[in-house]
Design goal:
Elements (H helix, E strand, L loop, with lengths): L10 E7 L3 H11 L7 E8 L5 H9 L5 E6 L4 H11 L4 E4 L5 E2 L3 H12 L3 E10 L14 E4 L3 H5 L11 E4 H6 L12 H9 L5 E14 L4 H8 L1 H17 L10 H16 L4 H17 L9 H34 L1
Parallel strand pairs: 1-2, 1-4, 2-3, 6-9
Antiparallel strand pairs: 4-8, 5-9, 6-8, 7-9
Helix pairs in contact: 9-10, 9-11, 10-12, 11-12
Length: 337
């Protein structure tokens, strides 16, 4: 059992903020509803230029459980890493500036962790969708505890991926294993963090309590940019997949290659469906390169799983070809008239 100063907070919550002035007033209002006993909030101003800095300074001035640091703009990974470096709580958490916690979250987590002493605890989330065409479902884990890592916990349990904001991590565990966010990844940084943390955890607890309120696509201009440019999104995910595969042995995932590659195909197959004709051809070439680079790792994978991505890609190309052909025929008929 680790020794701790009783004066230190039990939970350290890192809140990266970048040009979120249009979200902060609502965030502050939800923040005031929380029972903050035993928690510290580390706001990291990631070089904001829209007035967020002044709003954060005013908010944190007279609140002893808040801390504010300012850094040059480096992205969410850099901001989170800066917060990790300053955290003092027993457990580390992440909260986005356009989201909120359910009042009572720390009491629930404190009660659950008192028995399990988990390295990672995963909780549920209510999702508020702002784009019905790209909506996601609530995060609803079941109540279960894994003692010693099992790949099923990472790949199959609801809530394990892809987010970090519905988790609390034992800070000493994070620091002992030098787990940080990769500043070079602009989309999917949570994936790599989870793929590094989960295999090293001795106790992973999932609870069904929905303690997070996720406002999907409300203020995340970066995410909207990726959704509007599926080729950019696919390229970013290829980078994440490559990094995860390159680190799979070091992260203890050699015994879970089939589950790992099912994740690869599922993630990339979603992206490729939204690409146009020329983008799909580029995507296929990038995917072939990925297969060649990792040939030894997938020798035992079932052929049906290997074909999933290719099937989605070819179907997408075929449908786009039909639409293009229909367009050409329609124009030709109009000219004949």
């Amino acid at each position: 059992m680790e020794k701790r100063d009783l004066a230190l907070p039990e939970f350290s919550v890192v809140v990266p903020v970048y040009n979120a002035a249009h979200c902060l007033n609502e965030f502050f209002g939800q923040f005031e509803k929380l029972d903050k006993n035993g928690a510290e909030f580390i706001f990291v101003d990631d070089g904001s230029s829209d007035g967020s800095s002044a709003m954060l300074e005013s908010f944190c001035m007279d609140r002893r459980y808040t801390r504010l640091i300012k850094i040059e703009h480096g992205g969410v990974s850099v901001a989170r890493n800066a917060g990790i470096a300053l955290a003092e709580g027993r457990y580390l958490m992440f909260l986005d500036a356009d989201d909120s916690y359910v009042p009572g979250i720390f009491s629930v987590l404190r009660e659950k962790l008192r028995e399990s002493h988990a390295d990672i605890i995963v909780f549920g989330a209510n999702v508020r969708n702002y784009d019905k065409l790209d909506a996601i479902e609530d995060i609803s884990p079941r109540d279960i505890i894994y003692r010693d890592f099992e790949p099923y916990a990472l790949f199959c349990e609801n809530g394990a991926r892809p987010y970090v904001w519905n988790c609390a991590y034992r800070l000493q565990f994070i620091r002992e294993n030098n787990i940080r966010f990769d500043p070079g990844i602009s989309l999917g940084e949570d994936h790599l963090f989870q793929f590094t943390a989960f295999p090293r955890a001795h106790v992973i607890q999932f609870i069904s309590d929905k303690l997070y309120c996720y406002n999907y696509l409300k203020c995340s201009s970066a995410m909207i940019m990726y959704l509007r440019d599926p080729a950019l999104r696919y390229s970013a995910h290829i980078t994440v997949v490559s990094d995860v595969l390159n680190l799979s042995a070091a992260n203890g995932l050699d015994s879970a290659q089939e589950l790992l590659w099912r994740w690869v195909y599922d993630l990339l197959s979603i992206d490729v469906r939204k690409l146009n004709f020329s983008q799909s051809k580029v995507a296929l070439e990038k995917f072939r390169t990925l297969l060649k680079e990792n040939d030894l790792k997938i020798s035992g994978l079932k052929i049906s799983c290997k074909l999933k991505f290719l099937l989605n890609s070819c179907t997408n190309l075929f449908l786009q070809y039909l639409f293009k052909l229909r367009y050409v025929v329609t124009r030709h008929r109009k000219r004949l008239r």
